[in-house]
Amino acid sequence: MKKLLLSILGPIVAVSAIVVGIIWWDRGAPPGFRPPTVDVALSDLSFDHRGVRVEGTAHYNIRLTQGDYLIYPLMARGDTTGKNILAMVRTRRMPDRLIGLEDVTVEGFARPPGQIINRSVTEPLLARGYSFDEDFVLILEYDD
Asked: What is the pLDDT of residues 98-111, one digit of tens each?
């Protein structure tokens, strides 16, 4: 009976531990927790950061949505005319429809853009004259 139980539960526990370990390593914190948040200047933001707090000006003038999420470019604080995107933010927080620009402080996970920033996001921005920095970062704002 013990061998049967061990042969069933052993692989389940091993695979679960590996999955939790990979998520912990990737996010900088175990699943369900935030990594330590560090204040980072927008110009210094990189993929080496996990949990970040960044100040800047949100450009809501192009309303890009993916399901329940809003995606917008984040420029340096006070930069209302800039077009070179250093960071994009994905959030569930929807601003008022009348707001086009807003100074914000964003806390979230710093990630590579991956598949979230796809053609449906880049094409409208490029059509409006925006360009993407070679190393632009996606910030997944904390949901809570």
From this structure: 999 999 999 999 98
Segment holding 56, helix H or strand E: strand 51-59
Give, in words, the CATH class of 37-141. Answer: mainly beta
Exposure letters 40-69 (e unless 16+ CB within 10 A, then b): bebeebeeebbbbebbbbbbbeeebeeeeb
Torsion angle defined by CA atoms of residues 56, 59, 63 and 66, in that order, rounded to the nearest 10 degrees: -30
Residue appearing with tokens 């420029």: 75
End-to-end CA distance of the chain: 45
Cβ-contact 65, 120 below 8 angstroms: no
Flag whether the pTM goes above 0.70.
yes
